Amino acid sequence: MIIVLLIIATFVFAGTMIFSPGGLGRTITVIISGLIIAISLAALMLNNNYHWGLHQVTTTRSQSLVPLKSPEAALGLKKLGTGSEHVIVYRVAGKSTSVHTVAATTTKTKLTTGTPARVQIKTTRWRFQNHFTKLMFSLGNRSLPVVQRQYRFTIPKTWHVVTVK
What we know:
- The chain is α+β, with helices and mostly antiparallel strands.
- The protein folds into 2 domains: about 1-50; about 55-165, no CATH class.
- The protein has helices at about 1-20, 25-50, 130-135; strands at about 55-65, 75-80, 85-90, 100, 105-115, 120-130, 145-155, 160-165.
- Helix 1 packs antiparallel against helix 2.
């Protein structure tokens, strides 16, 4: 919405400067439309660089784990690229397919021993502070970026992590 407001204010500013005869009306229109342009540009810059109008919301979900194949191959470690990056492959109870952690710079994983076998996924995302900021800055984009995602795996001592190809 703010981009639409910026475009309209730019057309009003340019149209007034080009086609309107001099006088008090022209001066007031130029000042108001110029202020709208400046405020819109500043708001876009603040939203883009400093997440103005947004706040962080953290959601946590916990799921039970079952071994991938057997307790000897309970979790899989899949190397990416040159091998310095990796994802952990795991299987959630009640599902037949395996899942893996998200490979991103904002993702952290931690393995701990204990029972029961669980994975706790804590995701922090940006959310709009209110309806007005959502209306002004959403631009049709429904999903906001993830700030941080943390996986905490709790596995029994009998389970092992194996390398998956």
